[in-house]
Amino acid sequence: MISNLCAFILAQATIFRRNPGFYQNLAAGQHPKFMVIACSDSRVCPTTILNFRPGEAFVVRNIANMVPPPEQAGYPGTSAALEYAVRVLKVENILVIGHSRCGGIDALMTLKENTKRWRFIDNWVKIGIPARAAVLEATRRNPSLQHKCRTCERTSVNGSLVNLLRFSFVKEAVSSAKLQLHGGYYNLAEGSFEYWKFGADGKSGKVLKF
C-alpha cells in the first residue's frame, strides 16, 4: 500500500501539477460521452485498454460484465448506474466489454441446478443463463468446456446488450439516435481487441479486430 501511495505522490507531481486547468475543469462537473460496462477482473482495466482520460468514460464494473434485465429485482447497482449515465449524464455511447479467461463466465458455464457454491456469485451469474443456453446449443458437437466458456465470453456480451434495450429509457435513446450501443472483447494473452456495433433491432454488426 505504501508503494501505491508513493506512486500517487509521483503522479501528483508529474500529472496534476502540469495540468491544473484540466483537473479544475473536471472538478466543475463530468460530461462523459461513454459509459463502459466491464468485468471486475483485475487484469482488465477498461480505461487502460481504451486509453480513456479522466472524465471521458463513466465506468461500471461487475462480475462478468453483466447487465441484469430491468424486471429482475435485487441488482440495483448496475441498473442505477445505467439510469444515471443515460438520463442524467446523457452519454452518447454504451460499450460492454467481455474478456478472455473470465472467471465469472466459467462460473456460469459450470453452474449446476440445486447446488450452491457461493451465496452471491451463483445468483449473479444466473443473469447470463440465456447466453449459456445459446452456447450449449451452438456447441453441442464440441464437448470441450474450455471452448464453451470462451464462446460464452463473447455471447454474454450480446446478452447484456439485449438486456440494455429492455430498459425503456435506453430503448428510447437508441431509437431517437441519441445513444449507440457497442460490444467489445479483450483477449488477455494476445493483447487484442474485437469491436462491433449493436443495433436497435438487437442484431450485432461486423466484428472489427485490432
TrEMBL record:
Family: Belongs to the beta-class carbonic anhydrase family.
One GO biological process term: carbon utilization
Job description of the protein: Reversible hydration of carbon dioxide.
InterPro entries: Beta_CA_cladeB, Carbonic_anhydrase, Carbonic_anhydrase_CS, Carbonic_anhydrase_sf
CDD domains per the UniProt record, alphabetical: beta_CA_cladeB (cd00884)
Cofactor list: Zn(2+)
GO MF, one example: carbonate dehydratase activity
Name recorded for this polypeptide: Carbonic anhydrase
Enzyme class label: lyase
